[in-house]
């Protein structure tokens, strides 16, 4: 008798092959049969009218702190993610010396906008060395598996101490110490190493994070420390991927270390003329594995009274009379005609955004989300477009919309790639064969971004709802969200619905799949706030053969843990025997 059978669903198996109707039998934590299953089971799930997919493997998250205290791992677990890889962008919490905790917390708060008070309250620091951090993660059961990169910033802080973010040229002995720490972590099961070379990443004091300006000798030594191991991915975010010099270094690094490299580009130059993709493809033809990461839509800042940002925050009246109030009192105050008149008559003390544009001039790229978010809206749906149609000023329109729905309205501002008011740019990027789907940033940017639901968005928008251009086949998207990301990190025991592989599975009512408007919740330690986005349509999520969520509710099952790099080949061999 099987433990579980999923019957009659449309199976999208993660290989890219056409969907087919069938059953899946599960014994223990493994898929044992796919097709027509005739035997009985302890439990059966009726998947008629649903698609059945592998669980999503999300390679770009920041649950480094949350994974030590939260077994549920929402919001990613709500969205069908069964494996989350963290320690991205060079930030994380190990290795760490006694007394170094606050520095890593302040760095994570500055770079990834995770409330420091929540991290300080939630993390118990049962480790110093990276292998001990892995052991701590492994000791906690959870709804999904987590995997980790060794973060450059923590390694530099451990070796260089207070010099870690100002000394760009450590000596040979210090570089050797850092390399040994990286190798130690990867040998213990880290999935790779991550670093950041973007000026956007700073701690809460505005200091660039350790490693931002690290020299090529340091980077090569850290990469070579992983050479010859059975696994290890090099992940980097960079401002410079539009520059030929950066690419010369990246290709030389990949060729000498023979490591898989995955890149996140923050500059427009990397995308001009498909430069990043063309160079990555050329490198692949020469035996190098270089794979850019891309999101399924523009990363977007969320404006609103529930978020950390809106255009009136810098107005003197708001700062003096409203900013300190509770949400309810803010609404009452801002509803007063005299307050409205005063704020709209003032100039903001915040003169520019990160893009060097006045805040009020951005309102043609700011869109109210409403109850059912539309992430590919027309210009007419922008705050400025709505204002023009109503014959009022854009700032007046923004003010009134900000108070809508008891102040729960949020506004989506794409940070790039949306000047044409369509996703054609993203579609071109997503279809490139070397691209990895990533950048959900689950667990991070708690006050201004809510993109952890990216897998759900990609399915519903790109395979069902898109009206402004071509869609993608469902089978293509499922493969990109599961087997492609799993294989990129050597996780060969998951990502496909095949006998012998882990039973990490989603049963989705695809016609009902829909995203809610993001909302603020105060469920982090010490009452910390974060923006989250719920979803409907996941009939159930199965992790290692156990149903962890059913119709959006946690079942209490916690079969997930830590996935250690280099261990999957033995698991597969054992399963085959």
From TrEMBL:
CDD domains reported for this sequence: D-aminoacylase
Domain Amidohydrolase: from-to ranges: 43-548
GO CC annotations on file: cytosol
Pfam family, one: Amidohydro_3
Gene Ontology terms, MF aspect: hydrolase activity, acting on carbon-nitrogen (but not peptide) bonds, in cyclic amides
PANTHER family, per the entry: COLLAPSIN RESPONSE MEDIATOR PROTEIN, HYDRANTOINASE/DIHYDROPYRIMIDINASE FAMILY MEMBER
Protein name: Amidohydrolase family protein
